[in-house]
Amino acid sequence: MPRKNVRQQLDVVVAAAVDQSLTSRSVDTEMRTIPEFCSRNRIGKSTFYYLVALGRAPEITTIGGRKLISPEDEAAWRRSIKENPLPSALRPAAQAALAEEAA
Prior knowledge:
67% of the residues lie in helices and 9% in strands. It is mainly α. The protein has a three-stranded antiparallel sheet with strand order 1-3-2. The radius of gyration is 22 Å and the shape is elongated. The protein starts with a helix and ends with a helix. This is Helix-turn-helix domain-containing protein.
């Protein structure tokens, strides 16, 4: 008889752990470094810095000297890229943007 009680308790604990695991994975709250962001979005770091020069990079938050990107800013960046695609040649566009700033 006690085995059934233990089995029921184990089932409840496992179900709660699985539920918590699924919930925590569905809500992304982890800040990312620039290399992590680039890896997730399959872009090179040089491309990222061209995007910074163009003003098209996601919002960067500096915490303790570390440059981080929040999941919300990453999602907003993805939406903006979808709505307004990037130029095919980033280097000339970035150089032109920097030249305009200098003038």
